[in-house]
Fold ATP-binding cassette domain-containing protein.
Amino acid sequence: MAGRDHNRTEVSTGGAIAALAVFGLASNILSLSAPLFILVVYDVVLPAGSTETLAALLLMLAFAQIVQSLVDLSRARILARIGARLRQAAPAPAVFHGRTDSTPGAGLLQGLLSSPAALQALDLPLLPIVLCALFLLHPLMGWLAVSGMVLLAAIRAAEWRLAADPAQRLEVLSAQSASDMARAATAAPFLAATGQASATALRWKAIDSVLSHGHLRLSDIGAMSTILARGLRGFLQSAAVALGAWLAIRGQLSGGAIVAGSLLLSRSLGPFEQALAIWPSACRAWRFLRQSAPAPTTRRPWQAGAGIEAQGLTVRPNGLCILDDISFTVGPGQVMLVLGRSGSGKSALIRAIAGAMPLDQGRLTLGGAAISSSGAFARPSLGYLPERPVFGPGSVAEVIAGWGAARSAARAAGIEGAILSLPQGFDTPISTAEDILSGGQLRLLALARALSGNPEVLLLDDPDPGGDAEARAVLFAALRAARERGACVVVAARQSTLLPLCDLVLILEGGRARAFGPVAEVLRDLPRHHWQSAAGPKAGAA
Ligand SMILES: Nc1ncnc2c1ncn2[C@@H]1O[C@H](COP(=O)(O)OP(=O)(O)OP(=O)(O)O)[C@@H](O)[C@H]1O
């Protein structure tokens, strides 16, 4: 079905491009009516002194201009619709490690194709014909147009060179300012209370002042190039008339050809100049079109009997080794507890399995499917409770429902009642829910998201930080249920409270595996003081 829609979009876009080409040809032929009119008035009407011919010619010109306006309007509408269609066909934004792509590119593409400059630049393919006409009038006319184009291109090239660095710095700063504003908006109620409000305002003001200087510099560069180009165009137009007059004095050109030459020159420079103006945006849009690939949406089939297999997992963000050569296997229906002190690498390991942290070395397979080292996201269904709950945009129901229904997951995590008491229940925007729900309730919300759709892999990072008896009972029930339905579960914790529910234990120390195996074996082989110290002072409380 999606494939048929895609084909229909391609066919209709193809038809629209063909219509654009036909209308473009018609518009350019019709645009020759004005120079032709002047040529005939000077060379035929004036010598013959015929007012009837003049009136008939004027009527024909008016008709041609009306038709051309209608044709141009159709071209603008078709072009804008191609832009909208391309934007709709673009994949949803792919978000990887703080970078958001695709929507800005899709918006840029639509904005570009809807601009009057793009419409004028569309005539660029007909430039050789206009140039030929100028060379036919007189070779010097042709060369004047060519040298004008070279000078216009040189002005724009100088602008791009001068603006490249400031524009890049401005882009980085704008993104930083936007992210600061978003962070400040989230933390707004606490900024004054923690004494950060004035520091935040000062920081914003400092960035904004640099932004303002950057914009000023860019606008100076842009204005200089635009005014230079406009001046050059005006001069070239007059130069064409002067050249025509000089040629007419020497008897090499007629009076009408002088004006026709000047008009043809402006027709050749117009599309060229507009094409130069939109060139940087067109390059960015082209890069976007080449890069955008549909995000994987399908759930990978789980190979029966397979679990999680990790061999030599190594993670070195910025060259610093935080996970070193970790290997383990978790079968279906098994729960592995990752135990270690603060900073030993538990969260890093959970993130690496979840695909939220790229592997630098090692092999990881989930349900028989290898996860690529780039942290690629095509994989079996996976429930992940991060150490700090982070939610994407949407309503409570939308952020919970990952692979399955929101309501049953909320019930399994024991948070259904709290959600129903929110102003709009499951339809409450998550930003409102975050202001209302307690820290513990938000963790349960994140647990509900992890449990949604009964995932084949369940990764829980520090699911029991507070030791609240009710929350712990919910967690124990969820773990038992996951185990019974054959899920592979990995739980990271600083304490051994969950040990009685676990089949395997992996003890981490400074990013390395201190011990791994069935719980009973590890506890027997490892001297008690070792796993106690690895798990922190409360280890052994179970
Ligand atoms: N992206 C990163 N870049 C550099 N270092 C990192 C990165 N992520 C984690 N680390 C470092 O790796 C080490 C392990 O971090 P991790 O969050 O996995 O610890 P943890 O065992 O989960 O600790 P805790 O129990 O306190 O949550 C820490 O020293 C941390 O600073």
Notes: The first strand starts at residue 95 and ends at 96. Residues 1-6, 96-102, 373-378, 537-542 have pLDDT under 50 and may be disordered. Residues 139-191 form the longest helix (53 residues).
